[in-house]
Specification:
The chain has helices spanning 3-50, 59-76, 90-121, 124-134, 137-164, 166-174, 179-183. By secondary structure, the chain is mostly helical. α2 packs across α3 (90-121) and α3 crosses α4 (124-134).
C-alpha cells in the first residue's frame, strides 16, 4: 500500500465521522426533548393507573419512542418542502412543521402496529382489517393528540431559534448580562 492510499482512506474516515457527528448533533435535541416528554407522560400514566393496582412505567419504551421520533424529525427535516414559510410569521412554519411531523409519526406508528398483523396473516389487506378491530383506538388517538401538542411546542421553539439565533435564545432563557445591564 502506498501512503496516498492511506491518505485517501483517512479522508474518507474523517468525512464519515464528521457526517456521523453532524447526524448525532442534529438528532440530539428532538430526542432529548421527546425523551423528557415521553417519560413525563409515562410517569403520569403510571401514577394514574397505580390507583387501580396496575403498575406500568416504561423508561425503555420512552427511550425507544424518543429515538424513533428523533429519527422521524431528522428524516422529515430533509424533505424539500419542510421549511415552506421562512419569511412569514413564525406560526406558519410552526403549524406546517407540526403537521408534517405528526403525519410522519402517524404513518410510522400505523405501520408499526400493522407489521405484526402482516407477519401473522401474510397479507396487508387482511392485516389492515385485523388492525382496525384489534388496536385500542382511543389510546392510539390519545397518543396522537399528545404528539401534536409536543410537536407544536418543539416546532415553536425551533422556529424561535431559527429566527433569533441560538445564542439569543440561550441568553433569553439562561441569561448572560449584557454590557449595558452591567453598567446600569
Amino acid at each position: 500500500m502506498t501512503s496516498g492510499n492511506h491518505t485517501g482512506q483517512g479522508a474518507v474516515m474523517s468525512k464519515f465521522f464528521a457526517t456521523l457527528k453532524h447526524e448525532f448533533i442534529t438528532v440530539l435535541p428532538p430526542t432529548l426533548f421527546f425523551l423528557a416528554a415521553f417519560n413525563v407522560i409515562s410517569l403520569t400514566n403510571a401514577l394514574l393507573l397505580k390507583q387501580h393496582g396496575i403498575g406500568v412505567w416504561s423508561f425503555a419504551a420512552a427511550c425507544v419512542g424518543a429515538l424513533l421520533v428523533g429519527k422521524v424529525v431528522l428524516v422529515a427535516d430533509k424533505l424539500p418542502f419542510v421549511n415552506r414559510f421562512p419569511n412569514k410569521p413564525l406560526i406558519y412554519n410552526t403549524l406546517w412543521k407540526t403537521a408534517i411531523y405528526v403525519a410522519a409519526v402517524f404513518v410510522v406508528r400505523y405501520v408499526e402496529h400493522l407489521i405484526p398483523f402482516v407477519i401473522e396473516h401474510g397479507s396487508v389487506a387482511v392485516a389492515h382489517g385485523y388492525l382496525l378491530n384489534e388496536v385500542s383506538w382511543p389510546r392510539f388517538w390519545a397518543v396522537q393528540i399528545w404528539l401534536f401538542v409536543l410537536f407544536f411546542v418543539y416546532s415553536a421553539f425551533r422556529e424561535l431559534v431559527r429566527a433569533l439565533g441560538r445564542g439569543a435564545v440561550l441568553q433569553l432563557f439562561f441569561g448572560q448580562p449584557t454590557i449595558s445591564e452591567v453598567s446600569s
